[in-house]
């Protein structure tokens, strides 16, 4: 089953956005058994769209198209699709209801442009958009399935997950397929590769391994294909168990876990509460924690102590500690953590202080130096990290991840 | 001058990496006056590469190709290029010296595979690779220039900046080109389109407009091309002024501005300081503010008051206010803002309390209901937002953006 992904939008061709839709769709299609043979990006240009649709007709099993379905005049995909498939626009009552309710919820009037969204091709299958106004459309021509989806990434992803994935599995006879993800933090890519070299070498040919690094984290993805699904599942499980014994302390979760959800579950299961004292991260740890619905069951809040004045006046860090050791030191982060734990009356507290950059580094404490402390009723521990990164955003992200991971390891001990 | 970007590599088609090379090159080419009409990604597949090169010959002025130039067996681009341009491999002494010095610096021996990198096409211009081993190659066929570069992003970027950019400017007579971005928040895409319909309709044909929405924000991009650069600049400026008078309150910046940097600059210029009281956003506003290097000049920090207990005990919100009006109310956010401003001794304070979802909504206060307050020495104002969004992450992001925007408007008044 060969597939082509076509992303449409002037903004992709001028490089103003990175085309994440194409990568996301390529990964999802590969997972369910398609072979993506080409990705094409073209502008909001009628001729280019028509030429691309024509070129793909009868050549590939599936063409996924994103972008240009919006109601504004620069969204020409819709018009080009109607011309190419010789469609008549008909108003779809279900789509109109969705658009109406979408605008109502936002307290906005229904404009003519909004109403236009409900005009779908008479010869397409309509794919609902639960979180936006532009529906998807499924066409067929000379044995090729064409699916047009909105270009807004979260709308497209929701549509794919809720509807299109199922429709594709139903329409195409796709091979059996298992995907598992192992989520790691606290280890670099090349060091990880060394640690698991032998395991990787001994993987059976039915299992393919990929390394997917992101700032502060690595995902190992195992993609397995075989006729015998039961045997394949057993093989994958057995390989995961081997990996778990090789690198236990770096694995924080599997598949769709997130670090913040794993930590949250641990706090909740142990009946413990958490507070934060954030300096260089400025709220990044809190932001991650509240990603998880229901975080209020264990998260009371925290203090963003960006200036030293707040570290002293609100968190009670002694001036002498800041004076003698500096804001980025074991002594300061420990005092910050203990201060916020007392103020917020929680079981655990985490504190971070570091130099995110690009300025502020010294020979002794270069940019990327970050101290993190975890405290509980029983003890306070602190660790120094050297992210060695010049990028402010990445240093902040890596600090927040390292802080949550240190907390995870502390709770694991009890 | 039309250009096509071709990125080659199996890893792009399986979605295991996001193709940042294509976006980077598209932005650079647009900046120097090329119109990128298409981006294509194909696998390490000889047939697909040959077919793509053939398809582009004589059709476009420039084809930039990245990837597959390495010495390993899965890098087939090089071989396909040699076949397509009917080239004979010749050893280039300068490239060989670069490869030798590259390996020497790393204390590694020169292998046969490394030596192969110095074999370039007899009918190409060689483009040096100062930081890697694979050189670039510049070919010409039937009026189309083809340039092949390595796929490693920093090698490709260095090669483009140091050599290719200059070579392109020398070879092509590039037209004048202006790109301006207008950054907006607080308005939906279709409502914006209605508001500026007449202005958009009256834009001269030399100016192209695109809408680029992201959660809570919209970017309007004007791309202008004309022979006469001075006249074009004047025309663009005049159009921007017209737009500014049409929708002044939604525009927070231009081009590479960010909302947090704009607000930070205003605070800094007025010599004012800021603190935050975040409930549902959990640190998201602080996280945005510390994006800006040097934020410590105006940002003292804040309190993440996720639980009501913290709103009462740390921020001093009266229990009766929470009891009578609830946590998501004008009265509570005003008390939170005033409480943190006093505690942190700042000129301004911003407070947010809302229902991020997916749970916790009621008929009266559905998911997406958010109250935001801004307080200063002079006054406290609050506004209610109904984001009408079921997605927790987006509600948090939109709340943080709306909070910064409310602060921006408050400072603007002084």
Quick rundown:
The structure is a homodimer of 414-residue chains. Chain A contains 16 helices and 17 strands.
Describe, in plain words, how this protein is organized in 3D.
Two copies of one chain form a homodimer. With 414 residues, chain A is an alpha/beta fold. The first copy, chain A, has three domains: 170 residues, MoaB/Mog-like domain (Molybdenum Cofactor Biosythetic Enzyme, Chain A); 76 residues, Alpha-Beta Plaits; 151 residues, CinA-like (Maf protein, Alpha-Beta Complex). Chain A is built from 16 helices and 17 strands. The first copy, chain A, has a six-stranded mixed β-sheet, sandwiched between helices. In chain A, strand 13, helix 12 and strand 14 form a beta-alpha-beta unit. In chain A, helix 3 packs across helix 4 and helix 11 packs parallel to helix 16. The first copy, chain A, is globular, with a radius of gyration of 26 Å. The mean pLDDT of chain A is 92. Strand 14 of chain A pairs antiparallel with strand 14 of chain B, so a sheet runs across the interface.
């Amino acid at each position: 089953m060969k597939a082509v992904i076509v992303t449409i939008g002037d903004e992709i061709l001028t490089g103003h956005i990175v085309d994440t839709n194409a990568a996301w769709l390529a990964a999802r299609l590969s997972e369910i058994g398609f072979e993506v043979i080409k990705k094409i990006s073209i502008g909001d240009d009628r001729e280019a769209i028509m030429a691309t649709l024509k070129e793909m007709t009868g050549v590939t099993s599936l063409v996924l198209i994103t972008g240009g379905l919006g109601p504004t005049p620069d969204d020409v995909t819709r018009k080009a699709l109607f011309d190419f498939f010789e469609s008549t626009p008909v108003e779809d009552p279900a789509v109109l209801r969705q658009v109406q309710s979408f605008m109502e919820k936002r307290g906005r009037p229904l404009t003519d442009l909004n109403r236009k969204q409900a005009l779908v091709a008479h010869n397409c299958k309509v794919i609902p958009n639960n979180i936006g106004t532009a529906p998807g459309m499924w066409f067929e021509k000379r044995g090729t399935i064409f699916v047009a989806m909105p270009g807004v990434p979260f709308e497209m992803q929701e549509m794919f997950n809720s509807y299109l994935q199922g429709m594709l599995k139903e329409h195409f006879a796709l091979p059996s397929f298992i995907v598992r993800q192992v989520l790691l933090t606290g280890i670099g890519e090349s060091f990880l590769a060394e640690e698991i070299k032998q395991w990787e070498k001994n993987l059976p040919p039915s299992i393919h391994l990929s390394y997917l690094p992101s700032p502060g984290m690595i995902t190992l993805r195992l993609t397995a294909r075989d006729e015998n699904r039961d045997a394949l599942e057993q093989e994958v499980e057995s390989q995961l168990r081997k990996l778990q014994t090789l690198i236990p302390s770096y694995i924080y979760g599997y598949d769709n876990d997130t670090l913040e959800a794993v930590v949250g579950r641990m706090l909740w299961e142990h009946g413990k509460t958490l507070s934060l004292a954030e300096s260089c991260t400025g709220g990044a740890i809190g932001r991650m924690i509240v990603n998880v619905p229901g975080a209020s069951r264990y998260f009371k809040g925290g203090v963003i102590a960006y200036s030293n004045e707040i570290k002293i006046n609100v968190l009670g860090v002694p001036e002498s500690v800041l004076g003698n050791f500096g804001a980025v030191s074991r002594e300061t982060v420990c005092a910050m953590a203990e201060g916020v734990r007392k103020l917020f009356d929680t079981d655990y507290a985490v504190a971070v202080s570091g130099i995110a950059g690009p300025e502020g580094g010294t020979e002794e404490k270069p940019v990327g130096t970050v101290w993190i402390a975890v405290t509980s009723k029983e003890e306070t521990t602190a660790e120094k990290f050297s992210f060695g990164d010049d990028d402010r955003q990445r240093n902040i992200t890596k600090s927040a991840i390292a802080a949550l991971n240190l907390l995870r390891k502390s709770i694991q001990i009890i």
